[in-house]
Amino acid sequence: MPYKKFEEHNMQVTDDVKNRYKSIIEDLGENVKRDGLLKTPERAAKAMQFLTQGYHQDPIEILKSAMFKESYNEMVIVKDIELYSLCEHHMLPFFGKVHIAYIPNGHIVGLSKLPRIVDVFARRLQVQERLTEQILDCINDTLKPQGVAVVIEASHMCMMMRGVQKQNSITTTSGFRGQFEKIETRNEFLKLIGK
Ligand SMILES: [Zn+2]
User: Fold this and answer.
1) Exposure class string for 63-94: b at 16+ Cβ within 10 A, else e
2) What is the dihedral of CA 57, 59, 62, 63, to 10 degrees?
3) pLDDT tens digits for range 67-82
4) What pLDDT score was predicted for residue 166?
5) Which of 175, 18, 169 is nearest to 98 (CA)?
6) How far is the CA of 156 from the centre of ligand 1 (A)?
7) pLDDT in tens, 100-157
8) Greatest CA separation found in the chain?
9) Residue 165: per-residue pLDDT
């Protein structure tokens, strides 16, 4: 199957960002007219738009589009969801895994929608703490389950490549609502994701 590209770019934004990248690269001491760099400002502008496309997407609509009436009321867990985001302090990547659980309260949600809302919030300038809360609140307010839990484990390039240069540290954040505020339920979830 031929490689298909789904990226969409706003031409005006691409042009503006491209021109700014050009001067940034020059300010850093490089020659933007060098062969390998000729198309770099445009590529970088498009990449940044892709990595921040979450600003133009509505996670509530995504969840609502796949909510189904269902009487199942045991814990539903989607673990090891890949995460790629940008830290808002340095605009450097942080990446890792997200684990989400909820206990339905009359409705379940299409399982693929949970990774999708992770992407919507992750493709913005973020801090891991707020990202955790936003995923949690979005599921809690939209699906209105009996409980919801989110754990994120991530490595931050701004810590690994610069600053303290700690290559092996992983930052863990978590949030719990409803039934997961009870220690037994929370522990069951943590055990099931191997924590
Ligand atoms: Zn940072």
Assistant:
1) beeebeeeeeeebbebeebebebbbeebeebb
2) 180
3) 999 999 999 999 999 9
4) 75
5) 175
6) 7
7) 999 999 999 999 999 999 999 999 999 999 999 999 999 999 999 999 999 999 999 9
8) 63
9) 75
CB 114 within 8 A of CB 78: yes
Strand-by-strand arrangement of the 125-126 sheet: 125-126, 76-87, 93-103, 147-156, 171-178
Residue 44 CA to ligand 1 centre (angstroms): 19
Catalytic site residue 99? no
Find the mean pLDDT for residues 163-173. Answer: 85
Q: Is 158 a catalytic residue?
A: yes
Please calculate the CA angle 174-195-175 and round it to the nearest 5 degrees. 10
Instruction: State yes or no: is 156 an active-site residue.
Output: yes
- The Cα-based distances of 155 to 82, 109, 114 in angstroms read 12, 29, 21
Instruction: Respond yes or no: is residue 87 known to be catalytic.
Output: yes
> What is the Cα Rg of the chain in Å?
20
Among candidate residues 108, 49, 100, 114, the one with its CA nearest the CA of residue 74? 108
- Tally of residues, the chain: 195
